[in-house]
Amino acid sequence: MQEETFRNRLDIYYLAAIAYVVTLVVYVVVRGTLIGDRFEVVWQDPIVYLLAICSVSALIALVVAAISNRTVIVSENRLLFRSRFKERVFTPEDIEWIAFRRERRLRGEGRVYPTARIRLRTRRRPLWLRPGNFERSGNLARAIRDFARHNNIELKLSRSVDGISLKRAGNKGRGE
Q1: Is there a single domain that holds both residue 100 and residue 161?
Q2: pTM, 2 dp
Q3: What is the pLDDT of residues 66-106, one digit of tens each?
Q4: Count of domains forming the chain
Q5: Would you say residue 172 lies in a domain?
C-alpha cells in the first residue's frame, strides 16, 4: 500500500461566497432607484444587511479553509491529519476501531456520502471524518478501509435503510 494524499475541497466555499455576493449585488440593483440621471442605492434595508453579513461570513470561511490547507495522508502504517497549524499522526496501536456510516442526501435518492468514525484508545469520543469534504472522496474512504484491513483494526460497516441501521455480516444487528 502506497502513501496517498487527499486535500480538502474548497469548491463548496467558492460556490457559497459567489452565490451570496451575486445575490447581494442583484438585490441592491433591483432595490435601488433611478432618479433622473443618477442611480441611488438603498442601504437602509435589513435584507441588504443580512445578505452582506452572509457574504462576509462566506468569504471569511473560504479564506480560513484555504489558509488551513487541511490534508489527510493514508500510508501503510499510519493515518496523518495535517493542517497548516497542526499535525496529528495515528498508528494502528492508537486506533480501536473504524466505523463507516452512510448518510443519504436530503433531497432525492442521489448519492450516498459515507462518514468515518475513528475510535482512539486515548480519546473519549471518536473522531469524525467526512471523506466527501476531500478530493477523490471514494478513494479516501477506500484507502481508510484498506488501512484498517491491512493493520487488523476492527472495521464496522453499516448502512442506513429508512432510518434503521443494519450491520454488515460479522457484526450484530441483522435480526439476531
Answers
A1: yes
A2: 0.69
A3: 999 999 999 888 888 999 999 999 888 888 888 887 665 55
A4: 2
A5: no
